[in-house]
Amino acid sequence: MPSLDQALRAALAARENLLGELHAQSTDCYRLFHGSQEGAPGLTVDRYGPQLLVQSFHQPLEASDLHSIVSNVETYLGQPLLLVYNDRSKGNSRIDRDPALFQADDAALEDLVGREWGLNYRVRGRHAGQDPLLFLDLRNARGWVKANSAGKSVLNLFAYTCGVGLCAAAGGAREVTNLDFAQGNLVVGRENGALNPELPTMQFIQSDYFPAIRQWADLPISSRRGQKLPNYPRLQPRQFDLVFLDPPAWAKSAFGTVDLLRDYQSLLKPALLATAEGGTLVCCNNLAKVEMSEWRAQVLRCAEKLGRPVQDCQVIAPAPDFPSHDARPPLKTLILQL
Ligand SMILES: C[S@@+](CC[C@H](N)C(=O)[O-])C[C@H]1O[C@@H](n2cnc3c(N)ncnc32)[C@H](O)[C@@H]1O
């Protein structure tokens, strides 16, 4: 088994060409070390613009390993970065658990800006949520949206911090609607909009997925066992030219359960109905244990049964900063032409 130092050097060397391409396209947010595939399961090292974000998921790092990561990366990139180390192996990852091991500088915890596909994104090393504000494995899908949104009405479902919506706006979309039930995530989405003042403004809808998509799809909203439903925004039935569906692996609300393993159809069906004839639905499944071939077959079958057969189906794979030696990346993305 190679040492962490050796594994990290190999990972950096393997990214030589990719980083050249990313820098040329104004991207400075990427994964530098993907531990599960590159020799240290439970460890990730990401660059977010001026920040270096190290995260451990299984056990805390030794101080010597943390120092070795920083010096290897800074030497390789030829510039200093602001280090944030979040140990996610125990409950709260938003603190310096062992100040003797590491204490983040104030400058590293300030609001920073990272770039991807020429757009600015808010970077915050610690915030109310656990995950960074931009999911890096979705970069290629965001790039596809930017290249394929001109003149379209775009709906970004489970929008999080609205990166997909921002790419649609930058790609010339006629209108962009971002939907998420978490107000805090949409606030960051608005910040991302403000960080790119040359772009047209986007719409933000704070709502649970199920009532919103079912209204757009002109389907009834049913309560479970006759229970009274919480309030939800009223929306008119309509369709969008490009719909992007990237749900979390599992989430439960009063309106329904998001379950990417057992019930993708409940998410997919109304999203298909809310996509215009001749339009495009991009859908994702980030659950590692779901096989691409089985999921794709399920998606195509569901569209067929609904009378919205898929005319063409393409895959968007994550970029090589998320290597996958068995060619089965956890994040699977399909472009469905309807
Ligand atoms: C995996 S993230 C989606 C990532 C996002 N598509 C992106 O581009 O980065 C999951 C998001 O779904 C939202 N969410 C989870 N359950 C939801 C529900 N029932 N209705 C609306 N939003 C939901 C969360 O607030 C979170 O922002």
TrEMBL record:
Keyword Methyltransferase among record annotations? yes
Q: Which Pfam families match?
A: Methyltrans_SAM
Q: Keywords of this protein's UniProt record, alphabetized?
A: Methyltransferase, rRNA processing, S-adenosyl-L-methionine, Transferase
Q: Name one GO molecular function term.
A: methyltransferase activity
* Enzyme Commission code(s) on record: 2.1.1.-
Q: What residues does the S-adenosylmethionine-dependent methyltransferase domain cover? A: 31-335
Q: Name one GO biological process term.
A: rRNA processing
InterPro entries from the xrefs?
A: SAM-dep_methyl-trfase (IPR019614), SAM-dependent_MTases_sf (IPR029063)
Q: What is this protein called?
A: 23S rRNA (Cytosine1962-C5)-methyltransferase
Q: What class of enzyme is it?
A: transferase
